[in-house]
Design brief:
CATH architecture: Sandwich
Bound molecules: 3,4-dihydroxybenzoic acid, fe (iii) ion
Largest sheet: 5 strands, mixed
Distance between the termini: 51 Å
Structural class: alpha/beta
Number of strands: 12
Strand order of the largest sheet: 1-4-3-8-9
CATH superfamily: Aromatic compound dioxygenase
CATH topology: Protocatechuate 3,4-Dioxygenase, subunit A
Helix content: 25-40%
Number of domains: 1
Amino acid sequence: MTDTSYVEETAARAAASGQSATARFRERSIEGATADRERVSRLASRVIKAINDTVIDERVTYDEYNALKAWLIKVGEDGEWPLFLDVWVEHSVEEVANDHRAGSKGTIEGPYYVEDAPTLPWNGTVPMRDDEPGRPLLFQGQVRSVDGTPLPSAKIELWHADNLGFYSQFAPGLPEWNLRGTFIADDDGRFEIHTIEPAPYQIPTDGACGQLIAAAGWHAWRPAHLHLKVSHEGYELLTTQLYFPGDPHNDDDIAGAVKPELILDPSPRANGDGYEVVYDFVLDPQ
Ligand code: DHB
Ligand code: FE
């Protein structure tokens, strides 16, 4: 593949990812939040005030105000509200939601989760293409309660980008469940999942979010990551991500979702076939 066609192909897929993320979010979220009038008024007033304060402090001009209006319209047209919110807002929502937990650290879900990925045994291989590019990764560990009790048959949902940074069901051209699986731990809460190492992910650069990033001189990168949801009856669902050491974007993730506890420590497999890593999950009782 030439450089030009690679760029064209990845740009086309990035555009499609925004539209798919919006469509998926609509499907999953038919009911709105509870409409407590005082709460709505308080939150809306604070956000509006923060914008007005910025306008006054920064002496925002009509040209800038009109650029903002045009840009906000484009975020919607490009289907990029889920991307915008999950990159720049979700991390603080997650921080508030999970600050009471004693167990494993969570982090943002992001826009690319899909429910009901194929169910696989505790030592299964995530669905992938025959020639799936990327270094093999054996991801193993145990799911326990905060008191140390193993949690038999805990559910581990794993989804991640491929070796080009694309997610199945969002970027076109990938098999439906590529690199998405639901694993059921053994009687001792253990799992041994076979997958490939994902590539760093660049948030789509060809839509409104990319326009903002370029105009501000920021970068669009998230470090390579595995997404996980770990659950067991009677315990709080853990939504998290795991990262790889040495990724240059672990320190400046555009989505602000990296935590030191979430960086893996992989080592080469003794059989020479890629990498292996152990990571245990600790769930909080409900
Ligand atoms: C976005 C993408 C991700 O893969 C992720 O984990 C978080 C956010 C995004 O494009 O908004
Ligand atoms: Fe992601």
